[in-house]
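Practice problem 4.
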């Protein structure tokens, strides 16, 4: 019950509702979150986020635990029984899941070398999810096109935006430039940390073999779970983020293709 190689493992469940006071308490109680070396996953159950951890120690009063017999490779369904809940599904990797620290370091180094790339993003828990397309050009040019018609171009410290393609562009000084590349799983503060990086499996995406890297980002007072589909060169083809009230899927493409983010002229 205290090692990943054992057959009887302790599963810890961390439930985070979008508006509950208990969820706010979880954010400040690190004992309810995965610790170094733990295997951790997350999935939405309706608008509730369920974090599932195979821990090496007991969690706090803000999570639920159960002793179960696991060999690895199991499928687990967990239900959040409240008005906005649903069922979260998990596919556990084969045990012991390989350490993913070196793969995390590899993708960080490779992705930060990109000069251009695109992202197609789906953001929930809204149903249907909000759809947004991003085009990035280093060192500081970004174009945003949302499915609701909103458009934005950010060049240096100048930001151009309009609510729909037929409107005039509004221009303002943002005061800061958005560096490219910027990745949603980047650390933002010296205290931000990655926890429990493991390789969860393999999958072919865009005709390319990838390894699925899972980890938790402790960012300030908020935990975010990630899964990245990383190819042999360290490029991320897909990223899934699961945070409280924030379920994001991103598909990456056009790595270092000749893309240009131009200043709007009309």
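Answer key:
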């Amino acid at each position: 019950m205290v090692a990943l190689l054992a057959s009887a493992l302790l599963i810890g469940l961390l439930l985070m509702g979008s508006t509950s006071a208990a969820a706010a308490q979880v954010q400040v109680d690190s004992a309810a979150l995965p610790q170094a070396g733990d295997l951790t996953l997350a999935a939405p159950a309706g608008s509730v986020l369920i974090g599932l951890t195979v821990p090496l120690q007991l969690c706090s009063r803000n999570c639920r635990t159960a002793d179960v017999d696991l060999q690895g490779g199991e499928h687990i369904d967990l239900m959040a029984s409240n008005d906005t809940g649903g069922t979260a599904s998990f596919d556990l990797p084969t045990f012991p899941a390989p350490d993913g620290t070196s793969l995390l370091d590899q993708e960080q180094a490779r992705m930060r070398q990109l000069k251009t790339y695109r992202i197609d993003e789906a953001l929930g828990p809204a149903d249907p999810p909000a759809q947004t397309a991003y085009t990035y050009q280093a060192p500081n040019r970004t174009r945003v096109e949302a499915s609701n018609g909103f458009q934005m171009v950010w060049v240096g410290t100048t930001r151009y935006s309009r609510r729909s393609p037929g409107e005039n562009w509004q221009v303002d000084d943002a005061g800061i430039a958005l560096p490219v590349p910027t990745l949603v799983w980047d650390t933002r503060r010296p205290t931000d940390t990655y926890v429990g990086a493991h390789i969860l499996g393999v999958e072919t995406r865009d005709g390319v073999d990838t390894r699925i890297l899972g980890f938790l980002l402790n960012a300030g007072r908020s935990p975010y779970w990630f899964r990245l589909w990383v190819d042999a060169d360290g490029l991320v083809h897909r990223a899934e983020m699961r945070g409280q009230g924030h379920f994001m899927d991103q598909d990456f493409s056009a790595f270092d293709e000749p893309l240009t983010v131009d200043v709007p002229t009309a």
